[in-house]
Amino acid sequence: MSVAIGICAALERARWGAWSEIATILPRSYSAAVQRAGALALLLPPDDAVAEAPDDLLDRVDGLILSGGSDVDPASYGARPHPQNSASWPERDRFELALVHRALERDIPVLGICRGMQLLNVACGGTLDQHLPDSLGHTDHAHTPGAFGDHYVGLDRGSLAARAAGGERIAVKSAHHQGVDELGEGVEVTGRGEDDDIAEAIELPDRRFALGVQWHPEADLETRVIEAVVVAAREKPSPRLPKIVQARPG
Questions:
Q1: What 8-state DSSP symbol labels residue 158?
Q2: Per-domain residue ranges of the chain
C-alpha cells in the first residue's frame, strides 16, 4: 500500500462562476508532486478538533507537508503585526502548529514549504522577520505578484537539505516577503541565499526528517525534495526522542 502524505491546505476567499466563498484550497502542484513520488496525497483542512487531539489525524498519515500561503499570525510568536502583513487565519495556525508539534514528537517526517518553513520554526519556539525588504533593502524575493522568482541557494554539505535537493548549489523558485529570524529550539540553518544570505533551509538534526525550505519545490519538476519526504515516510520512526519546545504564547 502506498504511503499517505498529508498536505495542510489554506483557507482563502475564492471565486468560481457566480460564487465567492471562503474555501479550503491548495495549488494542484502540491498533490501532483506527491503523486509523482508514488504516494497518496491527502488534503488537510484546518480543524479545531484536530488541533486539540492531533493524533487522530496523524495516525492516518505517514508524512506531513506544510504548504505555503498567507502570513503566520504574529501572535503565534508573541509579536505585533507589521503593516505589510497579509491577512492571517488563526484557525489555520492553531491547526498546523498543533499538528507539526505532535508530528515532531512522534518523528513523523515533516516538510515545510515557504510559509511552512516559517511555521516549522515558530512551532519550535522561533520568530519571523515579518517584512524582509525592511532588512534587505530590496523586494527580489517577491518582485512580481503571482509569479515565482528564480535564484540560487547554497546548502551545507552533508545536510538533510542538500541530500533532499540532490546538491549543494541549486536553482530555486520563491515568492515570499517574510523569513526566519530567531531560530527555534533545535533548529539549524543549513541553506542560505547566494545573493543576500537569508535562511533558505532549516532542519532539526535530531529528527529523521524535519526540513523547511523557503522555496517552492512543488513548482519545480526537476527537484527531488518532495520525493525525499515520501522516501522518509516509508521508514519506521525512532522509539525515543527528546521533546520539542512549544511555540511562544501570543
A1: T
A2: 4-233
